[in-house]
Design a protein that fits this description.
The complex is a heterotetramer of chains A (248), B (228), C (67) and D (205). With 248 residues, chain A is mostly helical. Chain A contains 8 helices and no strands. The two termini of chain A are 36 Å apart. Chain B has 228 residues and is mainly alpha-helical. Chain B contains 10 helices and no strands. Chain C is an all-alpha fold and 67 residues long. Chain C has one domain. Helices cover 85% and strands 0% of the residues of chain C. By secondary structure, chain D is an alpha/beta fold. Chain D is built from 5 helices and 9 strands, in the order βββαββαααβαβββ. In chain D, strands 5-6-7-3-8 form a 5-stranded parallel sheet, sandwiched between helices. Chain D is globular and about 50 Å long. Classes of the chains: A mainly alpha (248), B mainly alpha (228), C mainly alpha (67), D alpha/beta (205). At the A-C interface, α2, α3, α4, α7 and α8 of A face α2 of C.
Chain lengths: 248, 228, 67, 205
Amino acid sequence: MWTFFHKLGSPPWLYAIAGAILRWLVPITLIALISGTVWGLLFTSPDFRQGNSYRIIYIHVPAAVVALAGYYVMAIAGAISLIWRMKMADVVMKAAAPVGAALTFIALLTGAIWGKPTWGTWWVWDARITSMLILLFLYLGVVALYESFDNKEAAGKACAVLSLVGMVNIPIVYKSVDWWYSLHQPASIKFTGESTIDSSMLYPLLLMIAAFYALFTCCLLMNMRAELLQRESRTQWVKRIADEKGRG
Amino acid sequence: MSPPHTGQFFARVLCRQLLLVMRRPIEMGNPLLFFAMVIVLFPLGLGPAPDKLANFAPGLLWITALLSNLLTSDAVFRSDFDDGSLEQLMLAPQPLFLSSLSYILAHWLTTGFLLALVSPVFALMLNLPISALGTLILSLLLGTAVLSLLGGIGAALTVGLKRGGMLISLLILPFYMPVLIFGAAAVQAAVTGTPPGPYLAILGAMLSLAIALAPLAIATGLRISLDA
Amino acid sequence: MYFNTVQALLMMDGHGVYVWPAYLITAVIIVMLLVAPMRRRSRLLQRLAAEVRRAERKTVAGVRGGQ
Amino acid sequence: MSISAIGAPLLEAQSLSLLRGGRELFCDLSLAVHAGQLWQIEGANGAGKTSLLRILCGLSRYGFEGKVVRPVAPLYLGHQPAVKALLSPRENLRWHLNGEGLYSAEQIDSALARVGLCGYEDVTSHTLSAGQHRRVNLARLFLSDARLWLLDEPFTAIDAQGVDETQALLASHVAAGGAVVMTSHQKLQVTCEVHTLKLVQSLIS
């Protein structure tokens, strides 16, 4: 097992492995996304209370779940790069940040659009949505910090520290926002409370969550490959790949 | 003469920081002046009606304290970084964890601590009931300490950057939010008469967590910034 | 299929105007997320390939000039 | 006190290599500094002298391959004089952050006198010139009891008489069993033997 972990450190090997995984993962992701959407949009019956607007759940909840998981992936990669000094973990962290930010943005946008028909206003200071907004700020903080360093090595380390601090703080932020929400509006309906969702609606949701996880992995691997080429553009193996691409 | 052990060095760095601030005591007034001016903005914006102001007073006081702390936390390491003293601190054999803690303690003593003492004056201007003043001071004392520690992390990460000032707020504000929630809730509870104890306890818990973990991040951040 | 006509599908008895834009925007963002790294990688490889070819041409010219 | 036998090195660097902006500053560089040795690092501007010194003293910990073993806490004089403009030279040395023991007032005054700053002890530093700031930094050499000295161009903005006095101090420090690693463009006129380390700048092929 240890040699595998060690080999993860060599860029060309990582580049090749990522390419191999992507070759079969991208089609699976697309199939899962399309089938999940079609199933959720067309074949499930509307919610008796919210009518058809509930169908947005099939993109809002998966995006929110994967966005939060994405932050933990970024923080763990940061921890690995700081503790074991593996340069490749920096690349994973740098690749995960924009994907996580985009998914958080999707979750916020679909949450707001879903709020309009159910509550009549675009923006609702609901506990989950507020925490999601703070998560977006955390992501943008990491991306902004990375862009402000000239030396990319130091940028990776600094972002690792920030994402670790973020990881420690996320449960605190989520709990305090939940608690804050209950303080100011004790009696209001819980918008995102999981009303007992019956199985016909649950299965497409699970499929969509899986599809979004696969999507996150695809984007992460693609960003990683691009980042690897960028950082190692002076080395031989990149020149060889550029050659094949040029002649191919 | 053997090098001082950690406690002596902690005290020496603390005294050095306080001495440097005492050389220009006027600068200690800047955050307080900022606090005063922003408090004055709210009646201008929200209207002078006493009851409406009193309703918002806890939140406004806490948000203003938070912003003034954010403004000053950028300069915690900046001056020592510019003239090279921070490099010498890095090479000292004593643990950097405690040296950065003494920097933050000095920063808190000269900003947050004074802010907490001065805040009742402005609370009365916002018609905060007298009964809530004690809780306000206590919550600000605990809260600004946590804010200084978190701001120190942002300062350590951006000290090497030329234009780090604006960036620090983007990095650190999300971590300030829980402190604001419980700080304002404590004062709100005192205003409505319910015991503020539990909220202050949570602030205390946050403070102990920050004291234990923040200097770790600050020390690593400083090593990274100085290495670039 | 829950909706029997395309018209009902689009209208979704009033909620279509929210559901479809949400899905559309999500689809656009997902496509951008997938395409952007691909484009960045291929553009980088092209630039490097051009560099490699330029370097080769220079060394070949160098050798010819040397004789 | 004669030079002690060649014991464990005060500073050891094993196969250091550093890439900066696509340029390879040095590759596979090894160095062992023993007690009683004076090392001078030579090289053109931008050859990586300062970067090497920062790695040796432990300021730079990331971004390079190789290992540095440093059993003793070094004294490092960098480009920046680490002098606070608000404090007087005496206070600067009294409150210095290098983690060494407290210097007594007499030691500080005698050190300041030897770098030619007597009479300026209590003037706030922002009225002093840059050269005088560097002299305050140099005064630390007379005060410190660290055995390993890492000096980054200590002679810049120092007049001839100050340079001679400092070179004499370096020689006596090395003779007393200390070790010095320094970068400088000037030829050293020192009694003891000078080991030189040339940094040749090479672009990656």
